[in-house]
Write a structure and sequence with these properties.
The protein has 2 domains: 236 residues, Aldolase class I (TIM Barrel), CATH 3.20.20; 54 residues, Winged helix-like DNA-binding domain superfamily/Winged helix DNA-binding domain (Arc Repressor Mutant, subunit A). The longest helix is centred in the middle third of the chain and has 14 residues. Helix 1 packs parallel to helix 2, helix 2 packs parallel to helix 3 and helix 6 packs parallel to helix 7. Helix content is 34%, strand content 19%. The chain is of the alpha/beta class and 308 residues long. The protein has an 8-stranded mixed sheet. The protein binds iron/sulfur cluster (SF4). Iron/sulfur cluster binds next to loops. The site of iron/sulfur cluster has 10 residues, from loops.
Length: 308
Amino acid sequence: MKDYKYIYGPIPSRRLGRSLGIAPIPVKTCNYSCVYCQLGRTDKMTLTRQMFYPVQDILAELKDAIQGNIEYDVVSVVGNGEPTLYSGLGTLIQETRKYVAKPIAVITNGALLYDSIVRSELKGADIVMPSLDAYDEISFHQINRGHHGLSFERVLSGIIEFSHEYTADLWLEIMIIAGVNDSDESLEKLRDLTKLIRFNRLYINTPIRPPAEPWVTASTPERLSRAACILGGTSIEHFSPTPYQSGIDDDYRAVISLIGRHAMREQEIISFLRIRGNLTVDLILNQLKEDNDVEKIHYQDTIIFRTK
Ligand code: SF4
């Protein structure tokens, strides 16, 4: 696949399989600045929905991409920020449906679900995956650090309202952070809130890539199991991701394209190259380590690569 501006992947998703991504917003444009965000701190904090790019430009790339010989299980609208800030979202979903027979998923922080227009636009998707990491105003500011125009109560009531209006698959995701929201008390408060929400699946996640704030750490497997027990959900750690793929022929460019969208662990890059039959994996790793445009982050006993 070519190197597109709005379309990327397919990348392996633990929940979705091979996910062909659509990124309809500029990088780090969000209404949250989550302490665990792998993009770093949000530098374009906004609550205003905008037509960042013409829908037709995104669709032109999508049509071109799916004409190639790529295999994917789902199209996901996600991007490096919050996709519901894109005011063309409803049209984008409707138009995508005309060209793609696979399910369309939207991964959202759920902050704008209080907006009836956003709720209506999302009804065109097959899967909506909102997050709920906090259980009160204090934990909301501690974890998600939302735009000053947002309150926890407003966000929560939007998620609840949407969940009862929306009739397709709603997969709730909760990010569990060590020492922040993984105590029994915090988990019980979260569980009480989830009872107000209609969802089909509940996934428990923990930061496995470098977070925006260095003090953020992943919960232990024991706390994740405890979270699954109290919340009644599935820990995302129990899923094996499918391998990364790229239609770009040149191996180095393929890796650069992938890490431009999605930070990758050293082991993931090695697996990706081996599956492609590359015989110079060490050379490529060294090239990456010396590339000034590539950020190398030592995290949890491995090196994570992403483009600057
Ligand atoms: S909602 Fe997503 S993109 Fe926005 S700050 Fe949080 S993790 Fe990052």
